[in-house]
């Protein structure tokens, strides 16, 4: 049976609402794939990807970068939600690390086997997560925003063994 639920975590005063999906039949902690949403927020697209990953035997965890599962309704709202993170990469890194730190504490998750994927803005988020030194097994950025951190344009990024 597929289990889905919201998982709250905090970044300072902001309460974020991740979405987890996994099969209840798992007898041991499972590898987890974190899903970073596009500029629109943690909507059904990210949650459906988490469900799809659960169907493949992983734990899918849709990250909430904006807090309180906020969604942008149009381009202007989406831009307003995303821009503070693009302009302050330290804030982006702190927020996505809050999600990572929550994921590795979940009893269902094998904390040694965590990867991350993201689309567009989410691609930037997962690249910044690995840039921050998070011990990820892999990262995939689909159509990602390729903005290196200042002073790190030639830095090599590697997943951890």
Automatic annotation (TrEMBL):
One of its GO terms (molecular function) is hydrolase activity. The lineage of its organism: Bacteria, Pseudomonadati, Pseudomonadota, Gammaproteobacteria, Legionellales. It comes from the Bacteria. It holds the Pfam family DLH. Residues 21-152 form the Dienelactone hydrolase domain. It comes from Legionella pneumophila. InterPro entries: AB_hydrolase_fold, Dienelactn_hydro, FrsA_esterase. This is SbpA. Transmembrane segments: none annotated.
């Amino acid at each position: 049976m597929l289990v889905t639920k919201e998982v709250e975590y905090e970044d300072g005063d902001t309460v974020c609402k991740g979405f987890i999906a996994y099969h209840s039949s798992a007898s041991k902690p499972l590898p987890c794939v974190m899903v970073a949403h596009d500029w629109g927020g943690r909507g059904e697209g990210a949650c459906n990807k988490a469900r799809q990953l659960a169907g493949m035997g992983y734990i899918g965890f849709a990250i909430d970068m904006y807090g309180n599962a906020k969604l942008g309704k149009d381009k202007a709202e989406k831009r307003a939600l995303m821009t503070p993170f693009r302009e302050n990469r330290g804030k982006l890194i702190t927020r996505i690390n809050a999600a990572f730190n929550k994921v590795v504490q979940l009893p269902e998750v094998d904390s040694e086997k965590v990867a991350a994927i993201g689309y567009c803005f989410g691609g930037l988020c997962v690249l910044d997560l690995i840039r921050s030194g998070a011990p990820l097994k892999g990262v995939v950025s689909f159509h990602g925003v390729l903005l290196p951190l200042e002073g790190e344009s030639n830095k090599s990024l590697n997943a951890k063994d």
